């Protein structure tokens, strides 16, 4: 996602406010209709009161002369009643208008949050979650309802400003009856001033948006200082001072930047106030001349004066005007993100047969580069994985092993070539349906701060209530005794941040995660991916676990990535990856006989292990 360019920015304010206005009927048509009706009334009623007051002032001398009960007195009473009614009704309608705006605003925020979560959850892959533009929007989205980025405030701003706008237009038209040019000047002045100020506010808001990467950085630094997870390293290495320093510097930089923008806003405001002062002085002077020369009567003069001073209620410089600009700013961005992510969706063109993969999964000349990366991590990769067999993938750090399984899981799409399942190109298959056939455990698996039961059942959440099945997944992992020893057994929360909860050792966590993968297999997954499945276990424990996995998952397609050759050698077939290509391919015995990279690395590790019997 790219940030808006200069041309886009000129129209940003109008587009943002329009986007807010267009969303309101989606929340509630009747309440939007009420919003429009009360906007007109809130603008018209004070104007009606002004006119009634002016006419009343003009009618009083004649009524006083004619005496009580006279038609003139009745007219004066009627004008008084009209003025008072307009005043009271104005108050009442104003309250309804504001309350309606607050509710509409809150619901607008909810609507945007919902649409955003749905939009972000929609793409099958995870590439969008590494896109700086998307992350900037997500940051804004997380803050929706906080700080100045509040669409709710935009609706309240709109509610306050729209009637004032109409009232100012009405007052300008009243002034047109005094002097056409003065009236027209006022009619044009307010929208121009309003737009100038909105552009300034928008500029400030956009700067915050454009600096989202810096802001994310400083939020990251702040969270590092406060989170429990990095707390060990930060204290052991004495990083707290360094973190706080860095955070302070980033804040100072942000403040400095925003102060610079504030100064620019003051310049515009001074220019605007100068123009307003000149127009007010000209109007006042002309009114005074007209009054003194008798060209305009006393009643009309008072109406014109009230119209002129009433125009200053218009809040172009007020907080509400800033809220309107800043609060609406994220709205088109959320909508743009929504359509951008929807456009990225690829069409589903084929369905895989229920038994697939029955023959094989094939990587055919697959190439892949991470979004934004200049070089591919996988290039010209050909690999056929026979269904029902176990495959081990080995290679040095950064060789592309994890990237390969991420492609297989559909978390990213190949940038070249294709992956087929029994001959069907995965590009046309519904990724969600494909993933129900996969069970995967990645090396950076998630330690959910949930119960043991949930941590295991998340492998197939629809079977979460099946306790027997959960125990069945735990058994081969050797964690039954561990779970029984926990305060609430399966229902113990795996986090010491909760009362009655507990944390586990690295190896214990890994066994829980393996049980989760096994639970998914029990639920019907046909391909099992294990990326460094037991790096936290000792070599023998890992080899034993993998052996057990192979027994339990016999007949399943299993792909394991490991640096432990005692694990790797148990696979039916081994491929060595280097620079994103397969450079060796065969069984353990075949690769040993080949005497190349695999054999060399295996011998090296075996010799080391032989020297360290407790490894
Ligand atoms: N999300 C990402 N964005 C950009 N580059 C990435 C990303 N993930 C990995 N890479 C790069 O891709 C290359 C291959 O990474 P990959 O994780 O596939 O290697 P690996 O063989 O699994 O390594 P290891 O044995 O260390 O786990 C590396 O150079 C890495 O820097």
Structure commentary:
- This protein is of the alpha/beta class and 615 residues long.
- It contains 23 helices and ten strands.
- It has three domains: 12-344, ABC transporter transmembrane region fold, CATH 1.20.1560; 350-437 and 527-615, 3-Layer(aba) Sandwich (Rossmann fold), CATH 3.40.50; 445-525, Rossmann fold.
- 62% of the residues lie in helices and 9% in strands.
- The chain has a six-stranded mixed sheet. Strands 2-1-4-5 form a four-stranded antiparallel sheet, with helices on one face.
- Helix 3 packs antiparallel against helix 11 (298-310) and helix 17 crosses helix 19.
- It is elongated and about 120 Å long.
- The protein starts with 5 loop residues before the first helix and ends with a helix.
- The model has no long low-confidence stretch (mean pLDDT 84).
- Adenosine-5'-triphosphate (ATP) is lined by residues 130, 370, 373, 377, 395, 397-403.
- It is found in: Cell membrane.
Topology:
Elements: H1 6-10, H2 12-27, H3 29-66, H4 71-121, H5 132-143, H6 151-176, H7 180-210, H8 212-226, H9 231-236, H10 240-293, H11 298-310, H12 319-328, H13 330-344, E1 360-368, E2 378-386, E3 390-394, H14 401-408, E4 416-421, E5 424-425, H15 431-435, E6 438-441, H16 452-457, H17 467-474, H18 480-485, H19 506-522, E7 527-531, H20 539-552, E8 557-561, H21 565-568, E9 573-578, E10 581-586, H22 588-594, H23 597-611
Parallel strand pairs: 3-8, 3-9, 6-7, 7-8
Antiparallel strand pairs: 1-2, 1-4, 4-5, 9-10
Helix pairs in contact: 2-3, 2-4, 3-4, 3-6, 3-11, 4-6, 4-13, 5-13, 6-7, 6-11, 6-12, 7-10, 7-12, 8-10, 10-11, 17-19, 22-23
């Amino acid at each position: 996602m790219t940030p808006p360019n200069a041309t886009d920015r000129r129209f940003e304010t109008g587009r943002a406010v329009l986007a807010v206005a267009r969303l309101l009927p989606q929340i509630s048509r009747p309440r939007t209709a009420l919003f429009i009706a009360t906007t007109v009334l809130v603008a018209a009623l004070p104007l009606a009161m002004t006119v009634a007051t002016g006419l009343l002032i003009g009618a009083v001398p004649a009524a006083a002369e004619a005496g009580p009960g006279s038609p003139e007195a009745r007219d004066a009473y009627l004008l008084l009643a009209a003025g008072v009614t307009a005043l009271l009704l104005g108050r009442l309608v104003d309250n309804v208008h504001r309350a309606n705006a607050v509710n509409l605003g809150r619901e607008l925020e909810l609507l945007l949050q919902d649409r955003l979560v749905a939009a972000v959850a929609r793409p099958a892959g995870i590439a969008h979650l590494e896109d700086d533009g998307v992350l900037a929007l997500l940051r804004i989205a997380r803050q929706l309802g906080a700080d100045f980025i509040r669409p709710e405030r935009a609706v309240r701003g709109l509610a306050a400003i729209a009637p004032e706008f109409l009232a100012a237009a009405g007052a300008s038209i009243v002034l047109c009856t005094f002097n056409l040019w003065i009236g027209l000047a006022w009619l044009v002045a307010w929208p121009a001033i309003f737009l100038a100020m909105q552009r300034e506010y928008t500029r400030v808001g956009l700067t915050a948006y454009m600096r989202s990467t810096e802001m994310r950085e400083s939020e990251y630094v702040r969270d590092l200082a406060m989170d429990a997870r990095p707390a060990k390293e930060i204290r052991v290495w004495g990083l707290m001072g360094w973190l706080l320093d860095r955070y302070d510097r980033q804040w100072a930089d942000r403040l400095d930047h925003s102060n610079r923008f504030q100064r620019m806003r003051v310049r515009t405001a001074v220019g605007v106030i100068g123009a307003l002062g000149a127009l007010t002085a000209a109007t006042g002077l002309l009114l005074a001349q007209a009054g003194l020369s008798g060209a305009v009567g006393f009643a009309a003069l008072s109406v014109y004066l009230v119209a002129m001073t009433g125009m200053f209620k218009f809040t172009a410089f007020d907080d509400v005007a800033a809220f309107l600009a800043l609060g609406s700013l994220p709205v088109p961005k959320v909508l743009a993100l929504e359509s951008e992510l929807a456009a990225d969706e690829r069409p589903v063109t084929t369905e895989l047969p229920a038994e697939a993969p029955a023959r094989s999964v094939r990587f055919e000349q697959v190439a892949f580069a991470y979004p934004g990366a200049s070089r591919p991590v996988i290039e010209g990769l050909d690999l056929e994985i026979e269904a029902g067999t176990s495959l081990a993938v080995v290679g040095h750090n950064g060789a592309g092993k994890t990237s390969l399984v991420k492609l297989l899981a559909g978390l990213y799409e190949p940038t070249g070539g294709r992956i087929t399942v029994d001959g069907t190109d995965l590009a046309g298959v519904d990724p969600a349906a494909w993933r129900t056939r996969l069970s995967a455990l990645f090396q950076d698996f998630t330690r959910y701060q949930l119960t043991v039961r949930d941590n295991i059942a998340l492998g197939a959440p629809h079977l979460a209530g099946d306790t027997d099945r959960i125990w069945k997944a735990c058994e081969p992992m050797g964690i039954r005794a561990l779970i029984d020893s926990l305060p609430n057994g399966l229902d113990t929360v795996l986090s010491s941040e909760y009362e009655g909860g507990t944390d586990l050792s690295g190896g214990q966590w890994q066994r829980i995660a393996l049980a989760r993968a096994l639970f998914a297999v029990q639920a019907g997954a046909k391909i099992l991916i294990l990326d460094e499945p037991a790096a936290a276990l000792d070599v023998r424990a890992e080899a034993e676990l993998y052996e057990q996995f192979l027994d339990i998952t016999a007949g399943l397609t299993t792909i394991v990535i490991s640096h432990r050759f005692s694990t790797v050698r148990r696979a039916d077939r081994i491929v060595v990856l280097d620079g994103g290509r397969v450079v060796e391919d065969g069984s353990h015995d075949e690769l040993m006989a080949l005497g190349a990279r695999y054999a060399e690395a295996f011998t090296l590790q075996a010799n080391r292990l032989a020297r360290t019997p407790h490894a």
